[in-house]
């Protein structure tokens, strides 16, 4: 049997890294002898997270354009040329059967070079509003796996396959893990648990909100498990001294914290949205308005419009947060309907379906 070789590229945030790792894991299940190489951006979190998952990674000197005039923007053309040359060397030496891009700046040069060299490429687009890298790459890519409908205005229709987003397989069966989860995180079994998720890098605005509303939340009778992000940990760590509050920078067992949670407040990054649809816990999305093309608002709205979650814009938090949370906490009908509607939008077979599309290209 042929020994296949796969290059995967994506990074900058967990939303691009974890889908790439999930795809690699599924490919490895089907082709245990296959060889894998990840390509990321130097100095970004993929350089740690990918080796922790057991794969080798090499870095490109690449970063995105900032929205304001900066020294980094002046370096962008130089970084792009350097990355294209480096990507060409990587692809020629590794000789992949297929190259898979999950978004982020490093995937741009890599997929560009792969298509020039005639190697099949697959794009996995997580968002309801694609980023500029994937829009540019889509013209030459062989297959584009998408998580949302109605992306014809961005991508060639004949190349698109609706698969959903790859997610960690361990979040598929959380109901059986609840008692293990409560003891793992040392949570009170008699209290409802509110899980706060700021995304892989943390969220300043959500952290400010929880700091301001913490007494209100505790007075509501919930215990708070608050993922604030590495960057903000020193600022918020001391809140763990309060009863019924745990502050962490990063959560290593997402399956268990989802199992323990009764309610979730989260950013609306694509991977988080996809995981929360599988998990089906009553959720309030607070999308970040500071991401490219405001795609988090579009991701969250795609769920909220189908009555699967509640959504509060950052600009409305002062006026709406307490009343929205109060209603969610005390209205069991609302909780049940949100859970049911959210689970209807889940795509539990996404990773397997994406890998089946990849295999079609190499067979």
From TrEMBL:
Species: Flavobacterium flabelliforme
One Gene Ontology MF term: glycosyltransferase activity
Record flagged with keyword Cell wall biogenesis/degradation: yes
Gene3D superfamilies, sorted: Glycogen Phosphorylase B
Pathway given in the UniProt record: Cell wall biogenesis; peptidoglycan biosynthesis
Pfam families tied to this protein: Glyco_tran_28_C (PF04101), Glyco_transf_28 (PF03033)
Keyword annotations: Cell cycle, Cell division, Cell membrane, Cell shape, Cell wall biogenesis/degradation, Glycosyltransferase, Membrane, Peptidoglycan synthesis, Transferase
Residues binding UDP-N-acetyl-alpha-D-glucosamine, per UniProt: 13-15, 127, 168, 200, 251, 296
CDD domains noted in UniProt: GT28_MurG
InterPro entries to which the protein is assigned, alphabetical: GlcNAc_MurG, Glyco_trans_28_C, GlycoTrans_28_N
Entry protein name: UDP-N-acetylglucosamine--N-acetylmuramyl-(pentapeptide) pyrophosphoryl-undecaprenol N-acetylglucosamine transferase
């Amino acid at each position: 049997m042929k020994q296949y070789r796969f290059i995967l590229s994506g990074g900058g945030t967990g939303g691009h890294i974890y889908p790439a790792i999930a795809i690699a894991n599924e490919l490895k299940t089907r082709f245990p002898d296959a060889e894998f190489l990840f390509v990321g951006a130097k100095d970004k979190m993929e350089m740690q997270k990918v080796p922790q998952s057991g794969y080798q990674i090499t870095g490109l000197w690449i970063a995105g354009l900032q929205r304001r005039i900066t020294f980094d923007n002046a370096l962008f053309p130089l970084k792009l040329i350097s990355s294209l040359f480096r990507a060409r060397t990587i692809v020629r030496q590794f000789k992949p059967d297929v190259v898979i891009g999950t978004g982020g700046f490093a995937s741009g040069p890599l997929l560009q070079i792969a298509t020039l060299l005639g190697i099949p490429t697959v794009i996995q687009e997580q968002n309801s509003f694609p980023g500029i890298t994937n829009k540019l790459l889509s013209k030459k890519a062989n297959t584009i796996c998408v998580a949302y409908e109605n992306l014809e205005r961005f991508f060639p229709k004949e190349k698109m396959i609706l698969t959903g987003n790859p997610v960690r397989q361990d979040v598929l069966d959380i109901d059986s893990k609840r008692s293990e989860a409560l003891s793992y995180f040392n949570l009170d079994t008699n209290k409802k648990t509110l899980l706060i998720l700021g995304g892989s890098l943390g969220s300043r605005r959500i952290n400010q909100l929880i700091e301001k509303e913490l007494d209100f939340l505790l007075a509501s009778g919930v215990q708070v498990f608050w993922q604030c992000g590495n960057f903000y940990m020193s600022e918020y760590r001391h809140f763990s001294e309060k009863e019924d509050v745990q502050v962490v920078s990063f959560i290593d067992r997402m399956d268990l914290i989802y199992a323990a949670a009764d309610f979730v407040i989260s950013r609306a990054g694509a991977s988080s949205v996809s995981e929360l649809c599988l998990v089906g816990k009553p959720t309030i999305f607070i999308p970040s308005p500071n991401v490219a093309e405001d795609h988090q608002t579009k991701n969250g709205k795609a769920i909220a419009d189908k009555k699967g979650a509640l959504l509060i814009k950052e600009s409305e938090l002062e006026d709406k947060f307490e009343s929205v949370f109060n209603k969610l906490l005390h209205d069991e009908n609302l909780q049940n309907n949100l859970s049911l509607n959210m689970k209807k939008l889940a795509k539990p077979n996404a990773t397997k379906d994406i890998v089946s599309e990849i295999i079609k290209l190499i067979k």
